[in-house]
Amino acid sequence: MSMRYMLFGFAILISIFSSLDSVHGAEHFGIQVYGGARLDAEETKFLKSVGADSYCYRTEDRAKTVAAFYQKHPGLTSLGGVNETGGMFVKEAKGYTVYIKVESPWQPSKGGELKKDTIIIITKE
Fold first, then answer.
1. Disulfide check for 21: which of 4, 38, 98, 112 has CB 3.0–4.6 Å away?
2. Are strands 77-83 and 118-124 parallel, antiparallel or unpaired?
3. 120 to 63, 89, 103: CA distances (angstroms)
4. Tens digits of per-residue pLDDT, 69-94?
5. Count of H helices and E strands in the chain?
6. What is d(CA 67, CA 13) in angstroms, rounded to the nearest whole number?
7. What is the CB neighbour count within 10 angstroms for residue 69?
8. What whole-number distance in Å separates Cα of residue 122 and Cα of residue 125?
9. Over the chain, what is the mean pLDDT?
10. What is the three-class DSSP state of 23?
11. How confident is the model at residue 2 (pLDDT cuts 50, 70, 90)?
């Protein structure tokens, strides 16, 4: 195989891997996004359309596991604890407040069937 074809194949692989939605090391408002969660563009767009400064992510991991991750996050305070369906967290920052909601099952903003995966909503107020 010629070098040109190998480089072309390598370039295709790079573009495929860079287009994956899975998040590693992303953060919003100083809050790290749970590893492996994927941005839910539709839910994020809907929340922004109603004036919320929010980002929505989804993962197949259990809500309790995801909530435990945020429970250990520096600067976050749990609002009501963590259970099998998730948890709520808050972080007071200079001039704004950040809320993190972890939930499963959850109802899509535009209605429809309950989703069985876990949603993570990070909101700045």
1. 38
2. unpaired
3. 9, 11, 7
4. 999 988 899 998 888 999 999 999 88
5. 3, 8
6. 34
7. 16
8. 10
9. 83
10. coil
11. low
CA distance readout (Å), 100 to 3, 19, 28, 54, 90: 49, 26, 11, 10, 6
Domain boundaries along the sequence of the chain? 24-124
For residue 53, give the DSSP letter: E
pLDDT digits (tens, 9 = 90+) for 53-69: 999 999 999 999 999 99
> Which is nearest to 110 in space by CA: 63, 49, 68?
49
What DSSP designation does 101 have?
Answer: E
Burial label for 38, CB within 10 Å (0-12, 13-18, 19+), is middle
**Which tokens in the block code for residue 83?**
């259970």
Predicted confidence (pLDDT) per residue in 12-66, tens digit: 444 434 334 444 568 888 899 999 899 999 999 999 999 999 999 999 999 999 9
Residue 35 contacts by C-beta under 8 Å, 6 or more apart in sequence?
23, 24
Q: What's the CA gap between 54 and 76, in Å, rounded? A: 17
One-letter amino acid for residue 113 of the chain: E
Average pLDDT over residues 116-121: 96
